[in-house]
């Protein structure tokens, strides 16, 4: 028998490199010719074949009850055509599910992309448009061999709505 589900409202904060640091990096445009440094995406893609592709996602809304992580690679996500979107994240950890109090939500403008650290829990991309195209950089088999999902509704009786 499932426990009743409580809807928890999670405020979306504007993303900055500082407030997103526990989960990964925010990458903004840089002048052509700038040398590689710590402001560039620090990627970990050495455990397989990298895959860079455009995925078309259809309406996702602002609610989630599942959160996922990848333990073998970093993941980069960004919306095409300047679309704003949302993501919820929790820091990497050893437990099989993140502590719900550590989940934070961010509003991602269309002029940057994010890099999730290895093991960062994430729900999204989330958005209210009919569809949004995203570029995604991960390993070719990430969604087959490196996709651990926690059901927040089954584990904690929680569903989140980003406001």
From TrEMBL:
Keyword set, alphabetical order: Hydrolase, Lyase, Purine metabolism
Single Gene Ontology MF annotation: ureidoglycolate lyase activity
Listed Pfam families: Ureidogly_lyase
GO biological process: allantoin catabolic process; purine nucleobase metabolic process
SUPFAM superfamilies membership: RmlC-like cupins
Catalytic activity: (S)-ureidoglycolate = urea + glyoxylate
InterPro entries cross-referenced by the UniProt entry: RmlC_Cupin_sf (IPR011051), Ureidogly_lyase (IPR007247), Ureidoglycolate_lyase_dom_sf (IPR024060)
Assembly description: Homodimer.
Protein name: Ureidoglycolate hydrolase
């Amino acid at each position: 028998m499932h426990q009743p589900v409580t809807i928890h409202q999670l405020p979306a904060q504007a993303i900055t490199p500082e407030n997103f640091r526990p989960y990964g990096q925010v990458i903004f445009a840089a002048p052509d010719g700038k040398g590689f440094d710590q402001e560039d995406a620090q990627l970990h893609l050495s455990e397989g074949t990298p895959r860079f592709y455009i995925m078309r996602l259809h309406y996702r809304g602002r609610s989630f009850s599942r959160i996922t992580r990848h333990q073998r690679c970093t993941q980069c996500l960004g919306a095409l055509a300047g679309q704003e979107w949302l993501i919820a994240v929790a820091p990497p950890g050893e437990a099989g599910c993140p502590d719900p109090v550590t989940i934070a939500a961010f509003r991602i403008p269309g002029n940057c992309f994010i890099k999730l650290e290895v093991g960062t829990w994430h729900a999204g991309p989330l958005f209210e448009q009919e569809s949004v195209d995203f570029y995604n950089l991960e390993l070719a088999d990430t969604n087959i061999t490196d996709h651990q999902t926690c059901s927040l509704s089954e584990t904690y009786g929680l569903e989140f709505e980003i406001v």
